[in-house]
Specification:
The structure holds two protein chains of two kinds. Chain A is α+β, with helices and mostly antiparallel strands. Chain A is built from eight helices and seven strands. In chain A, strands 2-1-5-3-4 form a five-stranded mixed β-sheet. A two-stranded antiparallel sheet of chain A has the order 6-7. In chain A, a hairpin with an 8-residue loop joins strand 1 and strand 2. Chain A starts with a strand and ends with a helix. Chain B is mostly helical. Helix content of chain B is 76%, strand content 0%. In chain B, helix 2 packs across helix 8 and helix 4 packs antiparallel against helix 6. The chains are: A alpha+beta, B mainly alpha. Bound molecules: FE2/S2 (inorganic) cluster. The site of FE2/S2 (inorganic) cluster has 12 residues of chain A, from loops.
Chain lengths: 254, 215
């Protein structure tokens, strides 16, 4: 059994936000199937550099599925065809000899293309800045377990906190909505007592910022849930909706 | 009142309006279907149902205006969401596949919605805004006369299937939007959405067929 395959890359090339961009077809020979998708792009880039051509720009950092930097649409699916996985965790053994692989950047009005496959995801940071934190006074550490938190609640908060902010939910959403991201960031705090004091302000401000950034409106298509590498559930979106309703009719926030 | 407009101009506010009006229409569909089932009891039963309904007088008129209001909100919000969501991705993907979340219902909501609107206009022109003053004309005769035409039977069956597709996403989606999603009961609501859309499809779909047979 051979451990190499030949593939054809159809990769999106775009000089910057104002460039129209186009697909470039690059035949790639003898791809080691033990390589990850990003390592495959590395070898393509080495080749391009040797030929004196512009290398393919793509985001990455940890390469072990924890930082949330990587991500492209691979054959039309965010982070590629495998469930619960970031692009850096995808391996070439999942592809077959002779495959044509289309690679495109996240596309949304809120995510401007910086170059090739790199997009500006700072609008997600803006949503966090609008309320994705708690205010805590410094001082002596409180006694451990002085705030009782039921196990299943802690689990749900942890599940929401697993979001790495990669933006795949926006990329996959037919409406380019960042509702799954926002709901995870609201939920991880709303579930815990430490998050309650600012819950109303948080829900309203984060939603307003979400909308102001140019993200679309969620219509419950569930494509986000299907591609999320951390398997964030849309029950978080329902929780965000409850938080928003509570905040709108039950708090002083205007 | 500032907070009201602030609330309903957000993306969640808009979809709350969609959910509340949409779920109201699901309720209306159920009541409308139950009433229509009197057709199977024959001309006497159907006409007595119609008579009882109209004897409510001003209540019926009020209900009709509420439905008009709900429709205006649902359509206006639906179109707003549709165009805003198109604008949220100005450059479309060259290669895009569904990852397994969307259904035919969810992917076609704006389109089925617009077709349903056109159908409702035809439906009202056929059964609601017709001259019913001549003595030989009543709601039963209009029904049989309409569905003696094969074109109308086919149109109605097609429209009812489209309504069923719309509702198959709309019902559970409405609950999700209102915040009712818990692993304890979401499978039930999703099942209910499918069962309800099948009941709507078959329940309304057989009326034109039955009416064309007895016509
Ligand atoms: S590079 Fe860190 S998650 Fe992929």
């Amino acid at each position: 059994m051979s451990d190499t395959i030949n593939i054809t890359l159809k990769v999106w090339r775009q000089k910057g936000a104002d460039d129209k961009g186009h697909f470039e077809t690059i035949p790639v020979k003898d791809v080691e199937t033990h390589m990850s998708f990003l390592e495959m792009l590395d070898t393509v880039n080495e080749q391009l550099a040797l030929e004196g051509k512009d290398i393919i720009a793509f985001d990455n950092d940890c390469r072990e599925g924890i930082c949330g930097m990587c991500g492209c649409l691979v054959n039309g699916i965010a982070h590629g065809p495998l469930k619960a996985m970031t692009l850096c965790q995808l391996h070439m053994r999942k592809f077959s000899d002779g495959d044509t692989i289309a690679v495109e950047p996240w596309r949304a009005k809120a995510f401007k293309v910086v170059k090739d496959l790199v997009v500006d995801r700072s609008p997600l940071d803006k949503i966090i800045q609008a309320g994705g934190y708690i205010s805590a006074n410094t001082g002596g550490a409180p006694d451990a377990n002085s705030l009782p938190i039921p196990m299943e609640v802690a689990e749900k908060a942890m599940d929401a906190a697993a979001c790495i902010g990669c933006g795949a939910c926006v990329a996959a959403c037919p409406n380019a909505s960042a509702m799954l991201f926002t709901s995870a960031k609201v939920s991880q705090l709303a579930l815990l007592p430490q998050g309650r004091p600012e819950a109303a302000k948080r829900a309203i401000n984060m939603i307003r910022t979400h909308d102001a950034c140019g993200f679309g409106n969620c219509t419950n298509e569930r494509e986000c849930e299907a591609v999320c590498p951390k398997e964030i559930k849309i029950t978080n979106i329902a929780r965000l909706n409850r938080e928003f309703i509570k905040a709108s009719i039950g708090s002083d926030v205007m | 009142m500032n907070w009201v407009t602030n609330t309903f101009s957000t993306s969640i506010g808009k979809k709350l309006l969609m959910a509340i009006t949409g779920l109201s229409f699901c309720g209306f569909l159920a009541v409308h279907l139950i009433g229509n089932l009197t057709i199977y009891g024959g001309q006497g039963m159907f006409l007595s149902y119609v008579e009882h309904l109209h004897s409510l007088g001003v209540l019926v008129t009020a209900a009709e205006w509420v439905l008009v209001l709900l429709a205006i909100v649902h359509i206006a919000m639906g179109l707003t969401l549709f165009f805003q969501n198109l604008a949220a991705r100005p450059v479309r993907y060259e290669v895009k596949k569904a990852a397994g979340g969307r259904t035919i219902g969810s992917a076609t909501m704006p389109y089925t919605g617009i077709i349903i609107l056109l159908f409702i206009i035809i439906h009202l022109l056929t059964f609601r805004f017709v001259d019913k003053t001549p003595v030989e004309i009543n709601d039963y005769s209009i029904l049989t006369a309409t569905f003696s035409q094969a074109g109308f039977v086919l149109l109605y069956i097609a429209a009812v299937i489209i309504v069923a597709i719309h509702v198959s996403h709309g019902l559970w989606s409405g609950f999700q939007t209102l915040g009712f999603n818990h692993s304890k009961y979401m499978p039930f609501i999703m099942g209910l959405g499918i069962v309800f859309s099948i009941i709507v499809g078959i329940g309304f779909g057989f009326i034109p067929i039955y009416a064309s047979i007895i016509a």
